[in-house]
Amino acid sequence: MSTDAQVPFLTQEAYDRLVAELEMLSTTGRDEIAKRIEAAREEGDLKENGGYHAAKDEQGKQEARIRTLEQLLKTAKVGEAPASRGIVEPGTVVTALVAGGEEVFLLGSREIAASGSDVDVYSEASPLGQAILGLKVGEKTNYEAPNGKSISVEITNVETYAG
């Protein structure tokens, strides 16, 4: 596998959307959570304070999302989706026969897909993604699913992602 496969790909639109999300979470998002935690703290006994625990859980999830976004934005390759050369690579829409059934999906980070998009997204780091990365139209392979089952895959089409 090439080292480029390890670099997440983002369209400029996706990158800009994620920068805005990170900015919101890092500023007003943090302020809002801090205020909710403080208000819940003032209610008294923290052991039985559901509002306090819910706010702390939300704070943990938010901080994890901030770290994820920071890492993604720092390492991502930003630009146009790669022009299809008939080769499966991050940022391409793949049509494949998976276990005999046709599936159409975007290979890459779920962050690539425009919000509201109904296209399925599979990570290039997933078992399926790793198995098909670099394959050409017409090539076949098998991969092992998390349950240990061997699943056949045949690439039938590779297109440029239009976003």
Kindly describe this structure:
The protein has three helices and seven strands; from the N terminus they run βααββββαββ. The protein folds into two domains: 3-78, Helix Hairpins (Orthogonal Bundle); 92-160, Transcription elongation factor, GreA/GreB, C-terminal domain (Chitinase A, domain 3), CATH 3.10.50. With 163 residues, it is α/β, with parallel strands linked by helices. Strands 5-4-3-7-6 form a five-stranded mixed β-sheet. Strands 1-2 form a two-stranded parallel sheet. The protein is elongated. Helix content is 38%, strand content 23%. It has helices at 12-41, 50-75, 127-132, and strands at 9-10, 77-78, 92-98, 101-107, 120-122, 140-144, 150-160. α1 packs antiparallel against α2.
Class of secondary structure makeup: alpha/beta
Output the CATH topology of the largest domain.
Answer: Helix Hairpins
What's the end-to-end separation, in Å?
Answer: 26 Å
Structurally, how many domains make up the residues? Answer: 2
The CATH class of the largest domain is Mainly Alpha
As laid out across the biggest beta sheet, the strand order is 5-4-3-7-6
Order of helices and strands: EHHEEEEHEE
CATH superfamily label of the largest domain: Transcription elongation factor, GreA/GreB, N-terminal domain
Secondary structure tally, helices: 3
Percent range for helical residues? Answer: 25-40%
The low-confidence parts are: 1-5
